[in-house]
Design goal:
The complex is a heterodimer of chains A (243) and B (393). Chain A has 9 helices and 10 strands. In chain A, helix 3 packs across helix 4. With 393 residues, chain B is mainly alpha-helical. Classes of the chains: A alpha/beta (243), B mainly alpha (393).
């Protein structure tokens, strides 16, 4: 479970995130929805302990991102916006490296990799160098990498960027399965349909603030609009930055 | 500690698969180094040859008239080659470049000698010739002059005159540029090449581990690993340092092998690079690798892309190496300041070892500890740089 309390972050004169508060419970998929530049990535980066908030705090399974960032990282799988792989290593080596960084021994890591490879359907290119991988293959590898230490919480920053329809469908199925296993999943997107299809809870973010929060139905009802897109436009007061 | 080791191992083995990194670490130094070294040594040795008493073959007409003179010439490493030619034939032989220089002893030489009259000899040479005839002629005439002076002084002594009084001014020409000293100077190249190859060997790894990691987009994921960021960077620095050490070891070994083929012994050089010397050279230079790896990592941390890092690091490498090209020209004293300057102190110690001297314990200790200390400070700075948020770019 991720509990976000009054997070704020400023870059120079730009206030990227202002007083953001929300909760992403276990066994639920929570989506951060907002136009480009709304502060979604910055919020997620603070939760991943990549950035330090100016004020506020967040608890991941009760561990504070401020006082014990390493404990937070242990409980969290991260698929960052730029999920680069090491081109000279095979997919397996890429994943095993992260498993070892998380303290797994090589044998456990390899067993875990085989398990994830079957789950994510990457067995066929598992032992190939990642140089020249397709976007879909890269994403599957990166996803396996972020799941290799069996984290309770999963953070995905714009995971469907550049994926084809089949890959998106597969990812969706996987996230549903992880939700079924009781994981807490928090992901960001600016694609309306994706959020509508996938999320149990939606946090609408605009100009660094939480504009609205609730289930898709609740948001539609709140705005009095028939589709999430219309509700979204009404809630944030502009269609700017939308796909 | 385990995290550092994991990062080190991954960087070490991943980069073994990268052709560019492999070329710079394992091929460039070990191949280019010995080539440059032997080229410079050969050049300096053959420059020395012109003034060195290399055997000169001298065609002599009428050698039988002056056996003592011939014996003296032989003693000066001038090989007398008796010929039967007349003056015209000698001229033709020189003009046609068949011979460079020739000596003619007239038939009346012995008679005049016996009467203590000036006994004439003729040296034939084409002074417009570019191929060393003049230098050879000078050498022959110098030898004969010295002989003449020696004999005339003996004659004076026999007549009861002190020969000292015949010498009003005496010129001592002292040639300090022996082939040996020139070769030692050229060997200064070896320490320069070794240190350069070392730093260059780790350059691409330092770039790849920092700017490269950011450019590929793998840095963010890496920084979410549950370990202090400093540990990540220490692992990377350790991998860079190990590539530097490998590159240096290979370069030194290749130079040692190449030196076997340079004719140093002919010129009375005691400089040799046997296995023991090579090991000593490696040992005194090794502490510099931490300094080098730290320096390159710190510089690379400020760069935004692989290309940018490449140009900055090339410059960074020249800072500790370029001065070494010039310090050979000045007399360097092992002051505490020199011995605690990274790169300069290693250069000094390596030169000492190449000359066959054993460096002092204080100097060894000062050089190693100063380089390791500065290296540790650079590692600490690199760690601090990775704690900054700006590292994400």
């Amino acid at each position: 479970m991720i509990v976000v309390k009054n997070l704020s972050k400023q870059f120079g004169k730009v206030q990227a995130v202002r007083d953001v508060t929300f909760t992403a419970p276990d066994g639920r998929i929570t989506g951060l929805l907002g136009p480009n530049g709304a502060g979604k990535s910055t919020t997620l980066r603070m939760l991943c302990t990549l950035l330090r908030p100016d004020s506020g705090d967040a608890l991941v399974d009760g561990q504070s991102i401020l006082s014990d960032p390493i404990a937070v990282r242990r409980r969290m799988g991260v698929l960052s916006h730029a999920s680069g792989l090491y081109p000279q290593l095979t997919a397996r080596e890429n994943i095993v490296y992260f498993a070892e960084l998380h303290g797994l021994d090589r044998r456990t890591a390899n067993t875990k990799v085989d398990e994830l490879a079957a789950l994510l359907e990457l067995t066929e290119f598992l032992d190939r160098k990642t140089k020249g991988f397709s976007q879909g293959q890269r994403l599957k590898t990166a996803l396996a990498r972020s799941l290799v230490h069996s984290p309770r919480n999963l953070i995905l920053d714009e995971p469907t960027n550049g994926l084809d329809v089949m890959a998106v469908r597969n990812l969706r199925a996987l996230l549903h399965r992880l939700r079924g296993q009781g994981h807490c999943i928090l992901f960001s997107s600016h694609v309306m349909q994706e959020v509508a299809l996938l999320c149990d809870e939606v946090i609408v973010i605009a100009e660094g603030r939480v504009a609205a929060a609730g289930t898709v139905e609740a948001l539609r009802a709140e705005a009095g609009e028939p589709t999430l897109e219309d509700a979204f436009v009404k809630l944030i007061g502009t269609a700017e930055g939308l796909n | 500690m385990r995290g550092i080791l994991t990062v080190f191992r991954k960087e070490f083995f991943e980069n073994l698969r990268d052709r560019r990194i492999l070329l710079s670490a394992l091929v460039f130094g070990p191949v280019i180094g010995p080539l440059m070294l032997t080229a410079v040594l050969q050049l300096s040795v053959s420059m020395g040859e012109a003034t060195f008493q290399k055997q000169l073959v001298l065609p002599v007409v009428g050698a039988e008239h002056a056996p003592n003179l011939m014996a003296m010439l032989e003693s000066q490493n001038i090989k007398v080659e008796p010929r039967k030619l007349d003056e015209r034939q000698i001229r033709d032989a020189i003009t046609s470049r068949e011979i460079k220089v020739a000596l003619l002893v007239p038939a009346d030489f012995a008679d005049r000698w016996a009467r203590s009259e000036p006994a004439p000899v003729q040296i034939f040479v084409d002074n417009s010739d570019q191929f060393g005839g003049e230098a050879s002629a000078t050498r022959v005439s110098r030898a004969i002059n010295a002989y003449s002076r020696q004999v005339s002084q003996t004659r004076l002594v026999l007549r009861g005159v002190d020969p000292i009084s015949t010498t009003a001014v005496v010129i001592h020409e002292i040639d300090v540029s022996t082939p040996m000293s020139r070769a030692i100077f050229a060997l200064g190249m070896l320490s320069y090449l070794t240190i350069f190859a070392m730093l260059f060997g780790g350059m691409y790894l330092a770039i790849d581990a920092t700017a490269g990691e950011r450019e590929r987009g793998s840095l963010e994921s890496l920084l979410t690993a549950p370990m202090p960021r400093t540990h990540l960077i220490y692992g990377k620095i350790a991998a860079t340092a190990s590539y530097m050490l490998i590159s240096m070891a290979l370069t030194l070994s290749a130079c040692a092998i190449a030196l076997q083929y340079v004719r140093l012994e002919e010129f009375g050089m005691s400089v040799s690079m046997d296995a023991m010397t090579t090991l000593k050279l490696f040992a005194v230079a090794a502490p510099l690798s931490l300094f080098g790896a730290g320096l390159l990592t710190v510089v690379a941390s400020f760069t935004r892309s692989f290309r940018e890092a490449q140009s900055y690091l090339t410059f960074a490498i020249s800072v500790p190496t370029l001065p070494l090209v010039f310090v050979g020209l000045i007399q360097l004293e092992p002051t505490p300041l020199v011995m605690s300057t990274p790169s300069l102190s290693q250069h000094f110690l390596m030169m000492q070892i190449l000359r066959g001297e054993m460096p002092g314990a204080t100097d060894l200790l000062l050089s190693a500890s100063a380089s390791l200390l500065v290296g540790a400070i650079l590692c600490w700075i690199a760690g601090r740089l990775y704690e900054r948020e700006a590292i994400l770019g």
